[in-house]
Write a structure and sequence with these properties.
The chain is mainly β. The chain has 2 domains: 4-159, no CATH class; 168-281, Immunoglobulin-like, CATH 2.60.40.10. Helix content is 15%, strand content 38%. It is flat.
């Protein structure tokens, strides 16, 4: 028997029952479900800040407001918000979001206030997010907080470097220890969910890459994480070798990479003034370019002053003749 459900212009509020675990609606084996202009609002008043030491699992969840099991769902102009337990849980089926808004689905985990739980999808489901009207992930290449555990993602979700979160490292500091080199990463959204790093050693066209996992104790907060490598991996390299580090995130099998941070430059680059620093990982401007720019600015100033003086002199000369 075909099961059809249609919800239009609806508002469904939060529940406080521990048995429901935050769920507002469960769809199971439904072949045709449509939601249009609906608002699903969780019970954010019961949110308490959690400590990871208490066993809170950060990277996955199960008690979402909308639970979809082997069902077909189309959501138009629908809002899912204020749910510490998650927005949507998918287990098989097909979900199409034609216009959605996810916001403030915050599990309130200590030291990770930016963490969100919008969608978790598993067991060969298909999620097609066509467009968002606001909330998380609206801006290009920002975090959608949609976790893929075996589904097919389509639409704007498939266009992001990661469907879950996108870290934004801002600096890396290298500190020598007895036999190790500690790397201190600082930035935003440094969340311990499939986050790792790689060290790249480059000599001309040759490149060697080594991957490393962060130790669980290295995650200090969403703003700072520490890793370490063998000391001679960096200090033991010759002058012709460049060493850089990248943060890896997203899909564990084929992760995305952030911008490189240069830990050690080549002697040739230093000689040419092409000094790249660890802070920010970007190339600093070569000195000769700065000198050229300064002289160009001075030349323009002198030229403008000369033109102004000439014009005034000519005007004064005409007045004298009259």
């Amino acid at each position: 028997m075909k099961k059809t459900i249609q919800l239009t212009n609806c508002t469904i509020g939060g529940v406080s029952s521990k048995t429901a675990k935050g769920k507002l609606i469960k769809l199971e084996n439904c072949t045709d479900v449509k939601m249009d202009s609906c608002i699903f609002n969780g019970n954010s008043k019961e949110r308490n800040e959690k400590n990871l030491n208490e066993g809170e699992e950060m990277c996955r969840w199960s008690g979402s407001l909308v639970d979809v099991v082997k069902s077909s769902l189309i959501m138009k102009d629908t809002t899912i918000s204020n749910s510490p337990e998650g927005g949507i849980t998918m287990s098989g089926g097909n979900v199409i979001i034609e216009m959605g808004l996810f916001e403030n689905n915050n599990p309130s985990i200590e030291k990770y206030p930016s963490l969100r739980r919008n969608i978790i999808c598993s067991v060969s489901g298909i999620l097609d997010a066509m467009s968002l009207k606001g909330g998380d992930g609206l801006e290009r290449n920002t975090s959608l907080w949609m976790l893929n555990e075996g589904c097919s993602f389509e639409g704007i979700v498939s266009e992001r470097d990661s469907s879950f979160f996108i870290p934004v490292p801002e600096s890396v500091e290298a500190k020598e220890e007895t036999d190790r080199m500690k790397l201190i990463f600082k930035g935003m959204l440094l969340v311990p969910c499939n986050l790792s790093f790689s060290v790249v050693k480059r000599k001309g066209e040759e490149k060697q890459i080594e991957h490393y996992d962060f130790d669980s104790n290295g995650f200090l907060s969403e703003r700072e994480v520490e890793g370490s490598v063998a000391k001679d991996l960096i200090s033991g390299c010759g002058d012709e070798i460049e060493v850089s580090v990248h943060i890896l995130f997203g899909n564990e099998e084929s992760p995305s990479s952030t911008q490189p941070f240069i830990l050690k430059n080549t002697s040739e680059a230093k000689t040419n003034g092409d000094e790249r620093v660890v802070e920010g990982g970007n190339k600093s401007v070569p000195y000769w370019i700065i000198i050229v720019v300064v002289f160009a600015v001075l030349f323009l100033i002198v030229l403008i002053v000369s033109i102004v003086v000439t014009i005034r002199w000519r005007k004064a000369r005409k007045r004298t003749k009259i």
